[in-house]
Amino acid sequence: MGLESSVPHLRKMQLSDVDQVVNVHLSSFQGFFLTFLGPRFLSLLYGYLVSSAHGVGYVSLDHGDEIVGFVCGSTQPAGFYRTFFKNQWRRIMLATLWPLICRPSIGPRLLRAVLYPPQASTAQGTATLMSIAVLPERQNKGIGKMLVQEFLIEMQRKGAQQVNLTTDKENNDSVNVFYRRLGFQLVRSFATPEGRWMNEYAISLGRGAGGQGSRGAGETGRGGAEEMG
Ligand SMILES: CC(C)(COP(=O)(O)OP(=O)(O)OC[C@H]1O[C@@H](n2cnc3c(N)ncnc32)[C@H](O)[C@@H]1OP(=O)(O)O)[C@@H](O)C(=O)NCCC(=O)NCCS
Questions:
Q1: What spacing in Å lies between the alpha carbon of 95 and ligand 1's midpoint?
Q2: How confident is the model at residue 218 (pLDDT cuts 50, 70, 90)?
Q3: Architecture per CATH, 4-216
Q4: Is 132 in the pocket of ligand 1 (CB under 6 A)?
Q5: What are the structural domain ranges in the chain?
Q6: Please, which pLDDT band fits residue 219 given cuts at 50, 70 and 90?
Q7: Is the CB of 211 under 6 A from ligand 1?
């Protein structure tokens, strides 16, 4: 196998990628709430996002077209989860029935997510990076960075002026360093109703989005970015 064939390449995420994207999510987000909701729920969620007119997603493919990483988000994050739950509630109930029977403790959090979905920034021109993951064995090789840069360029092309995201504040140094190195700036820290401390980051899409020219936003609209972790 030549060196060239082992260099991953990027392309836009398609509906047919969802199964592989779910596998990457399950491998990379072990112990996270959405992972506990199971592959059927994740397929619905990523399928809904990729089919949405506001969804933006990229996948990184290895030789043999295996998906080794992905990034996705929305140009209109406000109300994303509300619409998702409203339009897909029957399928969501079916998809989460078994995970709920196996792990009843996730019930209250799921209920909160349905009744009080995370409030994304409503600031005009603010897009959200909702999820990014690279297969554990392929991390620290520059794939995540390439995915974010391509994502930011596409968001800028679609007219977004800034992109925000949330990530765990505690026990998550590597991911916080990852975003800071890409030019994201900390906007605020906040606790979820479960007492989970989160950091909200933003980057403004000035000249040269995704590259050296990107500048941290310093401020964002009210509310926090929605996250899929
Ligand atoms: C976060 C994640 C997507 C990063 O992808 P990746 O392919 O491993 O990251 P890259 O190799 O592109 O790293 C990009 C930059 O971050 C830095 N970085 C990455 N991991 C790091 C670590 N553990 N410690 C310090 N810096 C790190 C790299 O040094 C690099 O900086 P540089 O270009 O200045 O050298 C990946 O680790 C992952 O999937 N994690 C699990 C899922 C997750 O937590 N997602 C984020 C949820 S908000």
A1: 31
A2: very low
A3: 3-Layer(aba) Sandwich (3.40)
A4: yes
A5: 4-216
A6: very low
A7: no
